[in-house]
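Marked as duplicate of an earlier ticket. Keeping the data here for the record.
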Amino acid sequence: MLLAIPITSLVGLWGFAATVTVGDSVSLLTVGRLYSSIGTAAGDLSAALQREHILSAEYLATRSAADRDTLAGQRVVSDQARTRFRRATSTEEVQSSMSAETKARYDELMKRVDAVGAVRAKVDDGRIGPMGLSREFALVPDALHRLYVTVSLSEDLPLYRQVRGIEMIGQAKDLLSRERALATGALALRQPMTDDELRLFTRLAGNRAFLMEQALSELEPELRGPFTELAVSPLYARFTDMENRLLGGSTVSPAEWRTAGDDLDAFYQRSLTEAGVALGERAAPSATATFVRAGVAAVLGLLAVAASLLVSYRIGSGLTRELAGLRRAAADLAEVRLPQIMERLRRGERVDVTAEAPTLEPLGSTVEVHDVAVAFDSVRRSALDAAVEQARLRDGVSQAFRNLARRSQSLLQRQLKLLDGMQTQAEDPETLDGLFQLDHLTTRMRRHAEGLVILSGGASGRKWRSAVHMEDVLRGAAAQVEDYARVRIFPMGGATLVGNAAADMTHLFAEIIENATVFSPPDSLVSIRGELVGRGFVVEIEDRGLGLTAEKRAAINERLASPPEFDPAETDRLGFTVVGLLAARYKVDVTLRPSPYGGTGVVVLLPEELLGDPEPVDPPVLTVLPEPSATPVVPRRAGPAVPVPADLWRPTRRGGGLPRRTRQADAPPRPVEKPRLSGVEARERSPEEARALMSALQSGWQRGRAEDGDGGDER
C-alpha cells in the first residue's frame, strides 16, 4: 500500500500530462472541423440578417412599395442562408464534434434564427421602432458569438489569441450593421435621431472602434494584414467622417451613407473570410506538433515511473513493517480503549486519562516512525483531555441550570401560595380577576422552570400520593397553556394515572397542547380524547392548523422515539425535546400523524404500569353559582376562572386526586347557556354577583389545594 500511493500518483500525473497534450491536439482538430463546417454558413447567415436589418429599418421609415419589394427580396436571401446553415450544421459529423455546452448554445442559436419570423411580422405591421428593431436583430449575432466561444481553443494553445481576435472583428462588423440601420431610418425621414437613438448610436460606434483596435493588437501580422488595410483605407475614413458628423448632430446624404456602409461591409466580409481560411490551414500543423509532444511526454513519463517504482520498493519495504506495528497499536487505542472511555464520560463517570490511555511505546528503528508515534500520542491525549473537560463543563452547566430552575420553582410555589391568600382576601371583582391572571402566568412560569430541570437531567419534583384521574391530568395540563379556553377535553371514563407520574405527564401533555394551540388558528378548537386500549391508555390531541409536511413529521417522530442528548446550543423546538425526554423516562410512545381536520394529531400511549385503579364516575353534577344565566366556571389550580362548555363539567369522584366540585346546597339548579369559545358571558354581572362568584371559586380552590396537601409542592 505504501508503494501504491506514490506509484499511483506518478502514473496519474503522467496520464494527466498525456491526456492534456492529446486533448489539446484533439481540440485543435475539432475546432478546425467545426470552423470549416459552420464558419462559412454562419458568416453568410449573419451577413444576410445584417442586410435585412438595414432594409427593415429603411422600410419602417418610408413605408414605400419599392422599399417593401427590396426587403422582400432580401428576406428570401436570408431564408436561403438559414436553410444552408441548418443543413451544414445538422450532419452527424458536426453534431458529434460538439460538446454538451456547444450543443446547448447551438440550440439557442437556432431558436433565435427561427424567431426572425416574429420580428418580420412586427416590421410589416409597424409595431416596432428603430430601438426595438436593433435589439431584436442583435439576438442572432449574439447567440452566434456565444456558440463560437464554446468551440474556441484553450488559452494555453498558440492559436487562441488569433481565434479570439477574429471573433472580435466579427462582432465589430455586426455593430457596424446595427449602427447603419439605426441611422438609416432617421436619414430616410430626413430628421435627426432622437436622444435615445443618438445614445445607442454613440455606444455602438464606440464599441465597434474599441473591438477593432483590440483585435488588431492581438492578431499576428499574417492575419492582421487584411484588417490593417481596411482600417487605413479611404473608405473607412469616409465612413468614420460621416459617423462623426451624425454624432455631432449634423446630417449626411442617405445615399452616401448607404453606399459607404455597403462597401465597408463588403470589405469586412472579405477580410473575415480570408482570415478564417488562413486560420483553418494553421490548425492542422499545430495539431500534428502537439501529437509529437504528447508522444515524447508519454515515453519520458513511463521511464520516470519505472525508476520511481524501483526506488520506492527498496525504501518503502522497511517503512511498511514499522508502520504496521504502529497501526496495530493505534487501532487498539482508537477502536477499543477510546470508545470505552468516551462512553464512561457520557455516563458521568470519572476517568483517569493517564491510567486509561497510557503513552504509546516507540516502535521500529526509523526516526520518522518514532516521531509519528509521538505526534499521534500527543493528539490523542489532547483530544481525550478536551472530551473530559467538555463532559465536566456540560455537567456543570446542567447542574447550574438545574439549581437555578429549582430555586425558581421554589419561589414560584411560594408566589402561588401568596396569590391564594390574596385571592381569598380580595373582594373587588377587577382585582380578583387580575390576581387570577397572575396566578395563571405564575403557573406557566413554573412549567417553564420545570422544563429547564427536565432538560438538565433532573426530575420535576412534584408528586401525588394517590392516583389522579386522567381527565384531571389533562385539564391541569390545559390550564398551563396561554390559550386554554380553546382546549376541549372529552369524557374519558374512570381511568387514572399513578401519582408519582402525574406531574411529569401533566408537563408532557402541556407541551403538546401548547404546541397545538400556537400552530392552529386562534378561533379553532384543540380536541383531546382518551380511552383504554390493550397496551395501556391512549390520548389523542388534534389541532386544526396547517399541519406538517411528511418529511418534518417523520423527523419529529424519529426525534421523539430516540431523543438525543440535550445540546444547549440548539434552542429550536425545546418543547419536543422535553416531551421526548419525559416519554423515554416513562416508556411512553408519542407519535405525530395527520389530522382529519387538516392539522396535526398527536397520539400518546401510556403503558399499563403508569395506570392506577380505575375510579367509578358519578353522573356529571353541575355547580350552579348564584347569578342568573351565568356560564359555569370551574376552579383551576393553575390560573384564572375558565368558562367550560356544558358537556365538559367535572364529575364528582371518590378517592384521592385533584380538586372536586359539589353542588351547592342552597342554590337551585338553573338552566345554563352554552358558552362561546371566547368565554364572553351573555350579560355583564353586577358587582354583588361577581363578588359572590369569586368567593365561590376561592372556596373551591382552597378545598382542592387542602385535599392535595403538600404532595403537590416542590421537594
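See parent ticket for discussion. The chain has 19 helices and nine strands.
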